[in-house]
Amino acid sequence: MQLTPLAVGFGATIEGMDLRQADAGTAELLRAALLEYGLLVIRGQSLTPRDQVLATNVFGKPEVFPTMRGQLSGWPEIFRVASRAEDGHVDVGRYWHSDGSFREDPTPISFWYSEVQSEEGGDTLFTDLQQAYAELQPDIQEEFDTLSTAHRNGVVHPLVLRHPKTGTRALYLNIGLTAGVLGYSADHSKALMAAVDRHYSRPDATYVHHWLPGDVVVADNLHVAHKATPITPSTRRILNRTTVRADGVIWSNPAPEAGAPRPAP
Ligand SMILES: [Fe+2]
Fold this sequence. Notes:
Layout: E1 2-5, E2 12-15, H1 24-37, E3 39-42, H2 49-56, E4 60-62, E5 79-82, E6 109-116, E7 124-128, H3 129-134, H4 138-145, E8 148-151, E9 156-158, E10 160-162, E11 169-171, E12 178-181, H5 186-200, E13 206-209, E14 216-220, E15 224-228, E16 238-249
Parallel strand pairs: 2-3
Antiparallel strand pairs: 1-2, 3-14, 4-16, 5-16, 6-14, 6-16, 7-13, 7-15, 8-9, 8-12, 10-11
């Protein structure tokens, strides 16, 4: 397995990997890479729905979804993102978001497998939420550290979320599903959200993933956000998405280095 960091400054491509063959050692390498880079791009895979669910288990227990039009019968773990309604969900976030941000405990990890992909359209953009926070002016960081945002469904999160494993701060905002900032007027909320939206999209900060059939992309949703670009039903595309439950996630847990003090039993 060969890991190459993406030029954008977050994320990495992994080559020489067949996810169907991932043993315990490989699984830990994948978890460590995801924790460090926030986004993994693994091309050239060939996964049945069962293979995808098994590969998702590397990162934790999958969420399950109600049966809906276009969903795969017998695989409630797989949420299909598609260009045609008969194939899956066409109304996906064309704004910066992390999947499952509307949950009380946000969805920590998303895993997409490209089953059918046309040549044109439907790229996915990614941006680094931790870097977005790190690049704010100190006075803005101080202000943002005190703020919380409400989703349209009433769920409230701090605007600055600490990663549950690393503690690193991230600027966490769903641009499409957030109703506003607590304690701010509608206009002030709108202005803040527009500013964060522009900040996420700042020059050279985003990675554009152009999908090929067989691509797997795995995102740490507390480290990166993503955004869909348009695709028309005249072209056919199906992405099978699995997501990891917040209460079932497995973060990388590196073994203590040789000579390092071991925790008391
Ligand atoms: Fe999404």
